[in-house]
UniProtKB/TrEMBL annotation:
This is Trypsin-like peptidase domain-containing protein. Pfam families: PDZ_2 (PF13180), Trypsin_2 (PF13365). Belongs to the peptidase S1C family. It comes from Candidatus Avoscillospira avistercoris. Keywords: Hydrolase, Membrane, Protease, Transmembrane, Transmembrane helix.
Length: 451
């Protein structure tokens, strides 16, 4: 899997943090002029694109921590997403419940006219620090409305690190937005604005998408070309796209996407959202060939189960959590000392399932279940196949022997805020900054150093 992605990893362009890098000068989202009324004009969708360093930065904060959201969370279909109301009157009962059925075979123009007003522009501001100085940033992206009372879906990397978020509707009105929840591992976020009578999108079924299906995206490329539509085709399914160390399975499309489009919807020709446009490959291959027409969207079925959890709980339930901090091995040194390929356990979180199962510092993890682990990416991908509560065999190399440990995976809890804790708890995984060495480690120094 890694080999297939590696030739393009240097040019991977996740959507919209390209904007963050480019917009320090103030090239933020520009609200449109109030549009002239059109017959049947109800809304449109958005495409997503951003710069690699930005999205990698978004996921990289937790890159070397061994927890991941379970890819196989039950997908909640839109038509049954209106769940039983709770006693909390603030819980939305107005979920997206509509799906366009039948073979409408709409034209791209008809899709645009139906859903352009379901698309939004998103502007964020915040501060970033490189350890020496702090600077301000502004960025723009896209999103789409999923309820009449103001719930909006976008990419995590669009709002990552933001201190303020503002949403621009198609009619030109601006609304301050609250971040309801965000999941970096799957690059999905939910916002809320105080508004009523909005026009939500229709949610489709990405499991029914086929290669060759026509698709339409609507968004805000470059943060200034507001509510632009592009059209194309679904090029491939189930592409594992490397967003940092954590791959995300996406739809591939040749629909044109650019920075500023991140977080917008990808439509089928029935007018249903089938994906969240998120990333593209760009640049040149090692042979100098220009990369064109390689865009990617998160399948809507995968996204909606996350969206529902974020709205209901503020975090994604069922995420498999192992409780170890790991470092990629120096493969040359490992081979020289006849050590297996794997990831080096730098630390074990106290009280975690890994500690209970007997995982130790300086172990080398070589497999999770039946999946071989040679890098952190492999471990992260393997964890996506499990849910919290699943019991799996973890294979480690220790003291010249292979040891198999039975681990019942924990559930990752939402990370405490600065207001609730100043230190790492067992519900957190250590980040890159928490580990003394980032990247590859010389196994000789650790494995034979008395650890």
């Amino acid at each position: 899997m890694n080999e297939n992605r590696e030739p393009y990893s240097y040019s991977f362009e996740p959507v919209d943090h390209d904007s963050r890098m480019q917009m320090n000068g103030g090239n933020a989202f520009t609200p449109p002029e109030a549009p002239k009324p059109k017959k049947g004009s109800h809304g449109a969708k958005i495409v997503a694109v951003a710069v690699a360093c930005a999205l990698v930065g978004g996921v990289g904060g937790s890159a070397m921590t061994a927890y991941l959201l379970d890819q196989h969370t039950t997908n909640t279909q839109t038509q049954v997403a209106a769940e039983t109301p709770t006693e909390d009157e603030n819980v939305v009962v107005n979920r997206v419940v509509h799906t366009n059925t039948g073979d409408k075979n709409l034209t791209p123009k008809e899709v645009y006219d139906m859903y352009v007003d379901s698309t939004v522009g998103i502007t964020t501001t915040g501060t970033t620090s490189n350890g020496y100085w702090t600077s301000e940033f502004s960025a723009s992206g896209s999103g789409f409305i999923i309820s009449e009372d103001g719930y909006i879906v976008t990419n995590h990397h669009v709002i990552e690190g933001a201190s303020t978020v503002q949403v621009a509707l198609y009619d030109g009105t601006l609304h301050d937005a609250t971040i309801i929840g965000s999941d970096a591992s799957n690059d999905v976020a939910v916002l809320k604005i105080e508004a009523t009578g909005l026009h939500p999108v229709s949610i489709g079924n990405s499991d029914e998408v086929s290669v060759g299906d026509q698709a339409v995206a609507i968004g805000n490329p470059l943060g200034t070309l507001n509510f632009s539509m592009t059209a194309g085709y679904v090029s491939a399914l189930n592409r594992d796209v490397g967003t940092g160390d954590v791959p995300i399975t996406m739809l591939q499309t040749d629909v044109a996407i650019n920075s500023g489009n991140s977080g917008g919807p990808l439509f089928d020709m029935n007018g249903n959202v089938i994906g969240i446009t998120t990333a593209k490959y760009s640049g040149n291959t090692s042979s100098g060939t220009t990369i064109e027409g390689l865009g990617f969207a998160i399948p809507i079925n995968d996204a909606m189960s996350i969206v529902n959890d974020l709205i209901d709980y503020g975090y994604v339930t069922g995420q498999a959590y192992l409780g170890v901090g790991v470092i990629n091995m120096d493969t040359t040194m490992a081979k020289y000392y006849s050590l297996p390929a794997g990831v080096y356990v730098d630390n074990v979180t106290e009280g975690s399932c890994a500690e209970k199962a007997g995982v130790r510092e300086a172990d080398i993890i070589t497999a999770l279940g039946d999946q071989t682990v040679e890098s952190y990416s492999d471990l992260a991908a393997a964890l996506k196949d499990y849910r919290a509560g699943d019991t799996v065999t973890l294979t480690v190399y220790r003291g010249g022997q292979t040891v198999e440990l039975s681990v019942t995976l924990d559930e990752k809890q939402p990370e405490p805020t600065e207001e609730t804790t100043d230190s790492t708890t067992q519900n957190e995984q250590p980040t890159q900054e928490d580990t003394p060495t980032y990247g590859e480690v010389n196994p000789f120094d650790y494995f034979f150093g008395g650890n």
